[in-house]
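Problem 12. The chain below contains 96 residues. Write out its predicted structure in token notation.
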Amino acid sequence: MTNDAPSLDALLGFLSESANVRAMADATDAGRPAAEAVADGLLERFGPVVREDTQKKRIGKLIRRVMEEEGFQWDHAGARTPGSSVFTSASVYRRV
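Solution.
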């Protein structure tokens, strides 16, 4: 992990913002990975460090936490995200 890596609290705070939760829920309802909806915002807020594999894994775990708290359930991993500025693949969730 690099020295300029965002803290878990900073990442969780970003992912928990109502606009981001709504965007992830909308992506999920459209059958897309939740991470796809927040990729550009993550890059804008935290910079290119979020493209590092260790950071993407941390972010993915936090997205799962937020989505589960919002009443979604993990469905499957590995969904391709061709338009994403950060992720090449990510998990898909479904409403419970």
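Discussion. The helical segments are 8-16, 18-29, 34-46, 53-69. Students who got a different answer should revisit the alignment rule from Section 12.3.
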